[in-house]
Specification:
Radius of gyration: 21 Å
Order of helices and strands: HHHHHHHHHHEHHHEHH
Number of strands: 2
Structural class: mainly alpha
Largest sheet: 2 strands, parallel
Strand content: under 5%
Helix content: 55-70%
Strand order of the largest sheet: 1-2
Distance between the termini: 16 Å
Number of domains: 1
């Protein structure tokens, strides 16, 4: 396996594409005198989503409703939690919320309300995923999970044969895993593999800070309802239900952008060089879906426009629908693929077809060997 610090993108290939595209995007904002950052609409949406996430918690604590109403409120919280992650935290931790980094940092710490560590999230998402998209062993988003195979370059196991059926169950556990164990495991692994540049003392401090984040998170979302007098079993059932809902929404949203039949899974050659330069690589490994669905675009924080997001992560998602035509036309001009599913259903079908294929086909390396 190529080491992280020795993997590279070719320097001379198709650089004119991204230079041309970047110039056109810059011109789009300059000619219209538009900010690349959050709009008033996004600020309003953020309050709505925060209310959907935290409002039901207040109702639970104050009104102590019946079990059916209580569970419905937890479901709403799950949808709100996913919305906060996709629309608020995500933009801010990419530096796309404001040109003022202090504002980005402040808004980005909304991740604490989701039970996660900003530092480890940025290592996995901003660095590994956005740099090495769909590169097996480097992009954690396509790494094998128990019972789930997302890359054609990883070993095929017996449990993968039914993954097209049980994947949703695994997806539903994603945020529960995140708020309990994932951050701690990533701190240890990233320190060992060199992804983290922190010193041993800084790593220990991050571990302690992450522990405090978990205590803070569980004190709010389990401690407050318990202190309000809600039955413990009802609280724990609701908490798990919230995460099952949020886990499915978040997992499916991200899977439809990269783990589908149309995307590539490139590997570096013997010299550690990938086939395409970084920008073209993103277009080969990323897919848009439902570009005309205004509700999904609103709720998913533009993550159905993942092509635009991967090429311009520091532009707020509110601009993706408008700049998509520029990206599509420029890609066509340079004869570079622009991958897109016209609807959510088509994207979902492609994802599960991809899972079914990966549940039966041996690793490419094994076939070639």
């Amino acid at each position: 396996m190529t080491k992280l610090n020795s993997i590279n993108f070719p320097k001379s290939q198709n650089l004119k594409f991204y230079q041309t595209l970047n110039t056109r995007i810059e011109n789009y904002f300059r000619e219209r005198n538009l900010s690349r950052y959050a709009s008033i609409g996004l600020i309003v949406k953020s309050f709505v989503l925060m209310a959907a996430y935290l409002g039901p918690l207040a109702i639970l604590a104050i009104m102590q409703p019946s079990l059916p109403v209580s569970l419905l409120l937890w479901v709403i919280m799950g949808a709100g939690m996913a919305g906060v992650g996709m629309c608020i935290m995500h933009d801010a931790n990419h530096g796309a919320w404001s040109k003022n980094q202090r504002v980005n940092d402040f808004v980005g710490y909304s991740l604490l309300l989701l039970g996660g560590s900003v530092e480890t999230w940025k290592m996995q998402h901003n660095f590994l995923h956005h740099t090495f998209t769909n590169v097996t062993h480097f992009d954690d988003d396509i790494s094998s999970k128990p019972g789930l195979r997302l890359s054609p370059h990883t070993p095929l196991k017996k449990a993968h044969k039914s993954q097209f059926f049980h994947a949703i169950f695994i997806y539903s556990l994603m945020t529960l895993y995140w708020v309990t164990a994932k951050d701690f495991l990533q701190i240890a692994r990233y320190s060992k593999t060199g992804v983290s540049k922190l010193s041993p003392s800084q790593t220990r401090l991050l571990f302690f800070k992450t522990l405090l984040i978990k205590v803070f998170y569980f004190s709010i979302f389990i401690g407050i309802p318990l202190m309000a007098g809600l039955p413990p079993l009802q609280v724990f059932a609701g908490f798990v239900l919230m995460h099952l809902v949020g886990g499915v929404i978040l997992s499916v949203t991200f899977q439809l952008a990269h783990s589908v039949e149309e995307t590539d899974y490139p590997l570096p050659d013997g010299a550690g060089v990938l086939e395409h330069d970084w920008a073209v690589h993103q277009l080969h490994t990323t897919v848009n879906f439902s570009p005309k669905n205004r509700f999904l675009t609103w709720y998913m924080g533009g993550l159905n426009f993942q092509v635009e997001h991967h090429l311009f992560p520091k532009i707020s998602h509110v601009h993706y629908p408008k700049i998509a035509r520029i990206v599509r036309d420029t890609a066509s001009e340079f004869n570079i693929p622009y991958l897109e599913h016209r609807s959510f259903v088509h994207a979902l079908r492609s994802h599960f077809s991809h899972l079914k294929t990966l549940g039966h086909v041996p690793a490419i390396d094994d076939i070639m060997g």
